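Encode chain A's predicted structure.
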Amino acid sequence: MRLAALLIAVSAAAPALAQERTPTERQSLLDLSYALGESHALRQACQGADDQYWRQRMVRLTDTEAADEAFDAQLRGRFNTGYAAGQAQHPSCDRETRRAAATVAARGQALARRLASVMRNSAQDRTMITEFAPE
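Encoded structure for chain A:
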């Protein structure tokens, strides 16, 4: 019986792929993708069209999440929607563009922290379980 409980606990604490995340976590990933897209547009307005800083972070996010095809398409779609919104609202770099970039960065950072906290808690649970696993 103990082994069954241990296996259930380990499987629940395993690193979550996007398709294994809760609906709230999936929504946070979609919101983060939007923020990354918006940040990409705002940064390009000030740094130039060749700047790929936030796009590269989005690629890392999709690689890390290893989402199923449907959710991966949603993540990319939200990034593109965020990009279009940022580009439409701030086509050139000015004080307002930089202010918007700071606001979006704060929102993205909060989302990323929330998701990282979920993963950290999952990793801690996994560590505690393996520390007490029978040898």
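The chain has one domain: 22-121.
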